[in-house]
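Example 3.2
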Amino acid sequence: MKFTEKLKLWLPVIAWCGIIFSFSAMEINKTQEFYWWDFVVKKTIHVIEYAVLYWLFYQAISKQQNNKKGILAIISFIFSLTYALSDEWHQTFIPGRHGTLRDIGFDWLGMLLSWLYIRKKI
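Structure, written as tokens:
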């Protein structure tokens, strides 16, 4: 496989990781009040971000590897989960933000939904 073909496969993954990183790098001024709507929107974004990341990574690796689809799904999950963990750790350095296991749970939910979609298509 040529370098340009590999780049076409992996550039969306790299770009999406950059988008997630840039959103996580934004400072947030916390309010004292809890707003359900704000919570629902932010957690939905977590689910979508990582559903897309899982899907992009799976697409890139499956077009490059001829392994069994189940192994590629596991590799995609490990990559996405590792990125989610590193993203939450990254947020601990941003003023007004903090990393939480709860957010990783929402990230995992996005990965699961993406995997279910891919599994149905195979």
